[in-house]
Structure formats: C-alpha cells, structure tokens
Design brief:
Elements lengths: L1 E7 L16 E3 L4 E3 L6 H6 L38 E11 L3 H7 L13 E3 L10 H4 L23 H9 L2 E2 L2 E2 L3 H7 L5 H12 L7 E7 L6 H4 L1 H7 L3 E5 L14 H13 L6 E9 L6 H8 L11 E3 L2 E4 L9 H14 L7 E5 L12 E6 L4 E6 L2 E6 L10 H8 L7 E4 L8 H5 L4 E5 L3 H13 L6 E4 L3 H9 L9 E4 L29 E8 L4 H13 L7 E9 L2 E9 L2 H4 L9
Parallel strand pairs: 12-13, 17-18, 17-20, 18-19, 20-21
Antiparallel strand pairs: 1-8, 2-3, 4-9, 4-10, 5-9, 6-7, 8-10, 11-12, 13-14, 15-16, 21-23, 22-23
Helix pairs in contact: 10-11
Length: 587
C-alpha cells in the first residue's frame, strides 16, 4: 500500500508533509515513533469503550503499568511516546471548493473529536501553474499580479474596482503581495517574542497534535503512465472530510441517508464522480491528550483519576484520595511533566495536602511530591500581586471569583473591616475601591505578608493592620471612634466565622440611642453538610445573634466536597443586636 501523510493543527496553519517508503514515521520535535513499535492488542479492547478518542483505544505501544503495592512508582520514567495512539477512520475525499458546504451538510456524521478538525488537506494534489495548460483549467488559487489593472476577462478595471481588488491583498499585518512594505506597515514586535518565534522555527515549529495518513490501493489507472505526482495534480485540489468512527467498517449501502443523498447529487450533476471514499489512519500524539486522560492510562483500571488541581503561583496543589497515595509519586511526576508541556512553564512544584486544616492559623500540611521545595510564591489576582508562603499562611485561588463578586458591591464611600484578612486578598483589593480598610488576622505570619503586600501594591496608606483574635478585634473597632464610619464587615473564615457573630451583640450598648448610626452590612461565610444548607446556615446565624426578625441574603458559593457547601450570608446588623446585651465571650 502506498501512503500520503499530513499533519493537523488546531488552527489552519501550513501543514508539514512527511513520506517514507519502508516505514511510516510520525515526527514531532519531541519524539519519533514507527508503526512497527505498536501492538494491536489495545484495538480489540477499545471497542467496548465510550465514543470518542481514548488512550485505552486504538493501536498503542506497550504502556507503563504500575504494580500493586507501595513504592511501585519509584522507578517511573515519563516517556511521551507511550501516549501515541493510532485510529482507523473513513473519510470522504471532496473537491476543495465544496468542502465547507459539505461539512455543514454532514456535520452530524463527521468525526467531531475534540481538538481534531473534520477537514484535512490532501498533500500533493494542489494545482500548479505548470499543469494549467495541460489540464485546460483556471487556477483560482494563484495570486493576482497586482501590476496590471485588468480583470479575468482581460478588460481594464476602473479605479473603484481596482481599489476593491487591491484591498483583498491586505491582511492584519499589512500588504500580502509587497513584502518590504508589509515589514514597514506592521508594528515592531518585542525582542522576546521574536526570540521565542525563532526558537520555535529552529525546533520545527509548534508540536503537532495529530496526523492523518491516507491509504490508497496501488494499480490505479495512469499511475504507470504519468506517475503518481502528475496523477495527483490533474485531479485538482481536494480535501478530506473525516467521517464518524462507526463508519470505518461499514459499506456505502449502510451509510446514513444524508451521505447517500450527497453521493446521488454528485453522480447526477457530474459526468465523472468527484467524491471518493478513502480509508485513513489518524494518529494522535502526546500533545493531543489532556492531563486527566494521561493519568487515566497510567493509573490502575477503575481508579478515580484526580482531574483537577489548584495553581498558586508556581505551585500545583493536588488533593489526592487515600487510594491515590501508593501512586502519588507517579501522579506527581506525570502531572508535573504534563503541566510543563501544556504551555504552563511557571509550574515548578507539585504538592499534596496530607491532612485537613486543624490549627487556628488555617495553614495546611503539604508534602512536596515533585519539583523544587520552595513554597514561597507570588500570586497575581485582580491586577494585584501577593506574596504567599503556603507553609505558614492560607491561600485559596478557587475563591478568586467569589472575592471579585464581593468587591463588586463596594464603592468609594465604604469603609471595610476585614476580620480574617489573611495575606490580604480581600483587604488589599478593596483598598483600591473604598475609602479605608481595617484588616486583622490572628496569624502573625499572615500579618507580616499582609504588610508586605500592601506596600508591594502601593496601598499601605489606605490599610490599617491589626493582629488579634477576631472577637477582640470586633469589640475594639466598634467601641472606638472608627465605629460610625464602618459600612462593610467581611468574615471569611468558613469553618468558624458564624461563631464569632456573638461579638456584635451590644457593640453600641454604651452609646445613646438617639445618636444617628449607620449599621454596617456583614458578609459572613460558612460550611454546611445538611440537606438544606441555606436554612441550616441561616439558623446558626440567628442563634449566634440571638435575633430572629431580620433579613439575610443567602447564596451558595461552591461545593467544596460531596454534600458540603460553602455559603455566604449578607445582612445589615440589626439595631436590636447592636444595642442588646453584650456577649460573655468578649474579653
């Protein structure tokens, strides 16, 4: 069998053609693999799998399989060639000018795999100018000379039509036809970007994610007479429409009615058929697969794959289950390598939380699984930079959206009191918006980083920092002259924040009631595991305040674990609570 080969990318870039006579090589800048390395054992097992591409399907090399027991992953070596898979697919070869119209008509019957285009180029069949006279056709793909003001019929164009025709020779970088003028018209690129581009060109360009190999039967007409190259040229430019994977073993009679109608129309309108069914071989390389798909192939069958991780600066934070612990090094090494290869070179460390948070400072016990052992990093959020040490302070990147939502309710007249500020993701971000921020945290390390971050972001003049217990901070703030100016109170300590609400009982008990007061809006966060989490959290707030008759705006923030919700409750401090009897817990 003879073969022609092409590479696909997720965007329409120039394609690289590779050919071979004795072996089929699929080349990327990372590795080279031959078909002789593969075994067909995975193909038989793949038929029972779900629809779509999978590392458990197709023709594959012998992949790494960890053995049972602790420490089986200690000698694991990450090899990209283990994740190459080959699939047999059927394709409809169509004229290039009709490919987009046919793609729209047959959309539901095409391959439709993620990150794989349904249209593939056929190498070697583009019409060249040297064959135009022999074939008696016009080359629509050739560029116009641009020097003669004539149309295709040889008649002179007027100035309006000529300008319209000339405008088609522009693109986003300038003139297409005038290279020197194009360099002048486009803006200069930064040296760093140019250096990266040169490095990519030197390494063969962007890694290919997949390749399509067209399999053709030998012995066709005119192959011996004019040669294969001329045979491909005279047929004109064509494209491949990759069909659904279920059609690879079917006959034309068993194809869907929509494809049969297209074939009937082609036979009726053309003396010689322009559509042809061909068998293809689709190869998916390492760069095609996502991290969870790679881990699924590495871990034992049936094990739940850790599908996500949190990124904190240069640190990737995993939350592995107990069943993953025997393979934690394997998961860490593969995750570390995959993250680096998936255009995230900033990741330098992979850690795992080895225990739940028990201490008052909300710090996590982390185990470094791969990379360097530095847990000090810089996080960018809302245009601000935060220095964070995960060994001594708490940070949760998954709450960035919730913090942004909370900040959107503040205005320039507000004075914010952040009771559990941490390193300042809310306090410092609020300082850009509001008039004044009072930030507090019990952890002295968090206060140290809060002060550093406020200076780093040039907002230290708008933030006053405190280091004390939450109840003492609330009592100190509302018993001082600052109390009348506070309009927003944030209590972002979901595990215990509701228990601190009793500190607001009687905060104005020593002040005359006839004095005008502006009661602050309190935003308190909490967890709930019951069937109705909103009702449960609402009841806990009412019990802590010893008040029932007040409105609470409740919303679910996110599901932190199966059956465990994080919620946010917002309400205006009731007057009866502020002037009520004080809490006995305030010291």
């Amino acid at each position: 069998m003879a073969s022609s080969k092409l590479f696909l990318r997720p965007n329409p870039l120039p394609l690289t053609i590779v050919s071979s006579t004795t072996h089929f090589f699929f080349t990327t800048p990372k590795f080279t693999t031959t078909l002789s390395l593969y075994s067909a054992a995975a193909t038989a097992a793949g038929h029972s799998l779900a629809y779509g591409p999978s590392l458990l399907k197709g023709i594959a090399p012998e992949t790494f399989k960890p053995q049972e027991g602790e420490g089986d992953d200690s000698k694991f070596v990450f090899d990209e060639s283990q994740f190459t898979r080959i699939f047999d697919v059927a394709a409809l070869r169509v004229p290039a000018k009709d490919c987009f119209a046919l793609e729209s008509r047959l959309r539901g019957h095409l391959l439709n795999w993620p990150r794989v285009r349904n249209i593939a180029r056929v190498p070697g069949d583009e019409i060249e100018s040297e064959y135009l006279k022999l074939l008696g056709g016009d080359n629509d793909d050739d560029d116009d000379d641009g020097d003669e003001i004539v149309d295709y019929a040889g008649e002179e164009l007027n100035s309006v039509l000529y300008r319209d025709r000339l405008a088609k020779t522009f693109n986003v970088r300038g003139f297409v036809k005038f290279r020197n003028l194009a360099r002048i018209s486009r803006p200069k690129r930064k040296k760093r970007k140019e250096k990266r581009r040169e490095e990519k060109e030197g390494n063969g360009g962007k890694n290919e994610i997949c390749a399509v190999e067209v399999l053709e039967e030998e012995g066709e007409e005119m192959r011996g007479l004019l040669g294969e190259e001329f045979r491909d040229k005279w047929r004109g430019p064509t494209r491949l429409l990759l069909l659904d994977e279920e059609m690879v073993d079917k006959d034309v009679e068993d194809f869907p009615q929509a494809i049969k109608v297209v074939l009937e129309e082609d036979t009726r309108e053309n003396t010689a058929p322009t559509l042809e069914f061909v068998r293809c071989r689709l190869t998916l390389f390492y760069d095609y697969w996502q991290m969870n798909e790679i881990l699924e192939a590495l871990l034992p069958k049936g094990m739940i794959v850790p599908s996500a991780f949190e990124t904190v600066g240069h640190i990737a934070h995993l939350n592995l289950r107990d069943e993953h612990l025997p393979y934690k090094r394997l998961i860490a090494k593969s995750s570390f390598q995959v993250v680096l290869d998936k255009n995230k070179p900033k990741i330098q460390t992979v850690v795992n939380k080895i225990d739940v948070i028990h201490n008052d400072y909300r710090t996590m016990q982390l185990e470094v699984l791969a990379g360097n052992h530095s847990l000090v990093t810089i996080v960018v959020e809302n245009g601000l930079r935060f220095n964070v040490d995960l060994a001594t302070v708490y940070w949760n990147s998954r709450l960035a959206t919730e913090r942004q939502r909370l900040l959107s309710g503040f205005n320039y007249k507000d004075v914010v009191c952040d009771v559990f500020s941490g390193v300042g993701p809310i306090a410092i971000s609020a300082a850009k918006i509001v008039k004044r921020v009072y930030a507090n945290d019990l952890n002295p390390d968090a206060i140290d980083y809060l002060e550093r971050n406020s200076v780093l972001n040039k907002l230290e003049k708008k933030i006053e920092v405190f280091n004390m217990d939450g109840r003492r901070f609330i009592n100190a703030m509302f018993s001082s002259d600052k109390a009348h100016s506070i309009t927003q109170v944030v209590m972002n300590l979901p595990n215990d924040a509701a228990e601190y609400l009793d500190a607001f009982r009687g905060v104005y008990r020593d002040r005359p009631r006839d004095t005008p007061f502006k009661f602050p809006t309190i935003h308190v966060y909490g967890f709930s595991k019951v069937r109705d989490p909103e009702f449960d959290f609402h009841e806990r707030i009412r019990i802590a305040l010893s008040e029932v008759a007040f409105n609470v705006k409740m919303r679910k923030v996110r599901l932190v674990a199966p059956g465990k919700w994080m919620l946010c409750a917002s309400f205006v401090l009731p007057e009866s609570v502020a002037f009520g009897k004080g809490s006995i817990f305030i010291q």
